[in-house]
Amino acid sequence: MIELKLPERENKPRKKGLNILIDNGYPLNYFTDVVTSMFKKIDFIKFGWGTSLVTDNLQEKIDVLNEYNIKYFFGGTLFEKFLYQNKIPEYKEFLRQYKCEYMEVSNGTIDISNQEKCKYISEFSKEFKVLSEVGLKDSEKSEEMPPKRWIEYIAADLAAGSYKVITESRESGTSGICRSNGELRVGLLEEIIDSELNLDDIIFEAPNKKLQTHLIKKLGSNCNLANISFGDIISLETLRLGLRSDTFFSFENQI
């Protein structure tokens, strides 16, 4: 077999260079095919927003993930729905029912402060590994949040007990670290990078090739990326390794 010297990728279980795929409600057979074929390249599956409540074969999907040692969690919007209806104890039972090791805490939809969100991070982290999210679903409100506030919130979430913090961009790439037209907020990203935050503790939502390419070129092969489509996992790995035109010259000294 021909061998090339490529950028080094972390081995699973990884603490950085995470590939987090989003399941928007894929059919079971397709879900199973992707997982069984690509399990070496998948670190987490996120069951998007509230899809886990209406997925009839949720346990069957989780059984597949357990077989291949892939972690999973439910979307932060589902946490917010339970919180909005004052059903946090019921949500904990829901997580226990599916033997969730990880869960997501966010405030992208409901109007609660980051300080209040951190209280829930601390509470849930006593039993679960918490992935928290910074950024708002509403693109206009999100753009009004200055970079220093993003940095403050990320640091606060980590201090409250978050395993890692996710930067919002939605599954469409039109909010949070992106503008409503899909353009990456480069200034925001630069300030996060230049801060004292450990970038290995941050997961960047990057649902399309444009975002993935920019982040990999800026942060390197082992940046943490989320909201990856099931059909994009091989494409993403080639971007990480300089095997696609978009990042071909980013790692030229590695060949």
Structure description:
This protein has 255 residues and is an alpha/beta fold. Helices cover 38% and strands 14% of the residues. The protein contains 10 helices and 8 strands. The protein has helices at residues 28-38, 58-67, 76-84, 88-97, 114-124, 139-143, 147-160, 186-194, 209-219, 233-240; strands at residues 19-23, 44-47, 71-74, 102-105, 129-134, 164-167, 202-205, 224-228. β1, α1 (28-38) and β2 form a beta-alpha-beta unit. The longest helix is centred in the middle third of the chain and has 14 residues, at 147-160.
Index terms:
255 residues; alpha/beta; TIM Barrel; 10 helices; 8 strands
Topology:
Blueprint: E1 19-23, H1 28-38, E2 44-47, H2 58-67, E3 71-74, H3 76-84, H4 88-97, E4 102-105, H5 114-124, E5 129-134, H6 139-143, H7 147-160, E6 164-167, H8 186-194, E7 202-205, H9 209-219, E8 224-228, H10 233-240
Parallel strand pairs: 1-2, 1-8, 2-3, 4-5, 5-6, 6-7, 7-8
